[in-house]
Amino acid sequence: MVMNPRIGIIGGSGVYNPELFTLDRKVKMDTPYGETSGDILVGSLAGVPVAFLPRHGEKHQFPPHMVPYHANLYALKQLGVEMIISPCAVGSLQEEYRPGEIVVVDQFIDFTKTRDYTYFDGPQTVHISIPEPFCPELSRLFSQAADELGIKAHDKGTYVCIEGPRFSTKGESRMFRNFAEIIGMTLVPECQLARELGMCYVSLAMITDYDVWKDNPVDLAMVLKTMGDNLYKVSQLLEKVLPQIPPSRRCSCAEAADVEV
Hints:
Layout: E1 7-11, E2 21-27, E3 30-31, E4 34-35, E5 40-45, E6 48-54, H1 69-79, E7 83-92, E8 102-104, E9 107-111, H2 136-149, E10 153-154, E11 158-162, H3 170-176, E12 182-184, H4 187-196, E13 200-210, H5 220-241
Helix pairs in contact: 1-4, 2-5
């Protein structure tokens, strides 16, 4: 039996590749925050114990604003996970961030409106500090691996997270272009909840299209093809990076919140 993993992967169903992932067991966990979005799949990838959780559910039944983010992160933490790798699909807000490329996100802007953002709802008030929201060590490993594999990846980029499930208007998209490189719907509150739990978090954003600001937006067929290409690249990155992750963490991600949840 595979030991409880230190590494968790949260992604869409397309990220789960049974050809690479050796499944050991499925874990169903209930939490103080309700059920997770699906069973946690525990096994190994590239010989490394990992836990995979489908963010939107096995049938993609949870839209971005309804994903049980609190339950998902809490359950992975209880399972022993210390680090979260989060592949996600995004649109590009800048010409030089092209469909088919990967962004190792380094900043985010929260433009969501109705989500539950914290575990710290009282009676104790806690303000976490996250000027650098993503794990520098994991980000470095993935950026370096992309360079070695010849995968076009940006080692930084600001992700503006919108509420969804609708996409932006052209007016909104033009506004966001002044502040960010990519746009998506799932990063918040997932990444900040991970930090509240003292977990490392890295976002591998897969660019599928230009957002609606561009005069000739990419059509659906091209989006689907680009997504398939991106998933293959993410698989390559996971195979290369997972065995390189050191047995003990060298970052300060665990120190953002100094109280137990």
